[in-house]
Amino acid sequence: MNSSPVKIGLLGLGTVGAGTVNVLARNQDEIQRRAGRAIQCAKACVQDVSKPRGCDLSAVQLTTNVHDILDDPEIGVVVELIGGEATAREWVLRAIRNKKHVVTANKALIAKHGQEIFSEANKAGVMVAFEAAVAGGIPIIKTLREGLAGNRVSRVTGIINGTCNFILTEMREKGRDFTDVLQEAQQLGYAEADPTFDIEGVDAAHKLTILAAIAFGMPLLFDSVYTEGVSTVTAEDVANAESLGYRIKHLGIASQTEKGVELRVHPALVPKQRLLASVEGVMNAVEIQADAVGEALFYGPGAGADPTASAVVADIVDVVRQLTADPENRVPHLAFQPDNLNHPAIVPMEEIETAYYVYCLVSDQPGVLADITAIFAAHKISISAIEQHHAAGVQSQVPLMLLTKTTKESNLQGALKEMADLESVKGKVKRIRVELEH
Q1: Residue 165: which domain range?
Q2: Is residue 125 located within the same domain as residue 176?
Q3: Per-residue pLDDT for 316 more than 50?
Q4: Is 428 a catalytic residue?
Q5: Which residues contact 202 (CB under 8 A, 6 or more apart)?
Q6: Which of 107, 207, 380, 408 is catalytic?
Q7: Over the stretch 79-123, which tens digit does the pLDDT of each residue have?
Q8: Are residues 115 and 16 in the same domain?
């Protein structure tokens, strides 16, 4: 057995990189006992070697030249922590072609370029590990890929963006407006200066792409994910949901149905009694439904230096354990053998069936409810609850909210278009999907 340390090279030494160095140092004895060999962080590529890093770098050689790592024959594992797509893709592919194993926390890289990267890795006989790309410290990739290998997974539902969950939690608990909470999230470091990827659902869509591929044995189909963010959710929506017995959560949903696979990211009303509804702040949770295990919920921190570093180091240990394994006998990157992936139909959003919360302002006058319910009936939509807050004044505007039973998205779109044309309906008609028990 080879007893020499496995040398790793870090590409990027930000929050997660520094956390990785710290975890490797702090737990080195435990890690070596688990891996069977010592793991040494030998080099790190950074833009500024003089910048303080928050970790002990006395044994780490810093460089600004990435080829000092990618082309170093002594580096066995490259850990990519720079984020982004183009440069990360270029560097990861070069590492692979130089027969180096890769660990990455880059969800955009895997979601959009994973097929190419895994194909190249298979040709080179090396591993690409990416546990840290989804849900931070929750070992959800390994759970789906290995722990549930005997199951047929039918549905994955996740709160997989901590920024959105923090915003919605603050809005509910303190009645604050979206813009106000977003500014605080940026000050606390939960949201970037440009928060678009988080609040518009792109980050969650990257993660859902990966989860769906592993859960269902299908290619990575990021461009097929319906994506909607939380920027249009108001404090009033959050309060209304609460009064109806729901909480608004930003969900990623991958589901196998008779029509095909649903891939969608959007806000949704979740019944308070569901465990997902109680996930607050920056925490993440992933709910899996499978034939043998039933329903299982995995909960934990979705970001941060140590939680994400925990996943990175676990991947490094996994790689080291399998260094001597026959590449043909390693766990496939996407759980299923590469030549046995399914290519399912993706259900168009118009064909999705779910329940809905609908909200608008209407004239406080007789016949308004009758007109609206007639429209819904004409579109074959059943209403499960309706609430209208009356106010003084014959012609005043009053809020109307209703919940529908499960219906097709296209039916609801048709009803809302007709409803918006009514003279008694004032302003925009809002809808948020409702995720009932499955």
Answers
A1: 142-301
A2: no
A3: yes
A4: no
A5: 196, 227
A6: 207
A7: 999 999 999 999 999 999 999 999 999 999 999 999 999 999 999
A8: yes
Query: CA angle 392-398-404, nearest 5°?
Result: 140
Closest CA to 221 of 186, 258, 277, 264: 264
Instruction: State whether 156 and 125 are in the same domain.
Output: no
- 240 and 285 part of one domain: yes
As beta bridge partners, residue 339 has none
CA 19 vs CA 27, 56, 103, 393: distances in Å: 12, 10, 15, 61
Spatial separation of the C-alpha atoms in residues 369 and 378, rounded to whole Å:
14
Does residue 414 share a domain with residue 324? no
Question: Distances in Å between the alpha carbon of 365 and those of 141, 397, 415, 424?
Answer: 55, 9, 21, 8
The residues near 393 (Cβ < 8 Å, ≥ 6 apart) are 364
Please indicate, yes or no, if residue 346 is contained in any of the structural domains.
no
- In b/e form, how buried is each residue of 194-229, taking b as 16+ CB within 10 angstroms? ebebbbbbbbbbbbbbbbbbbbbbbbbbbebbbbbb
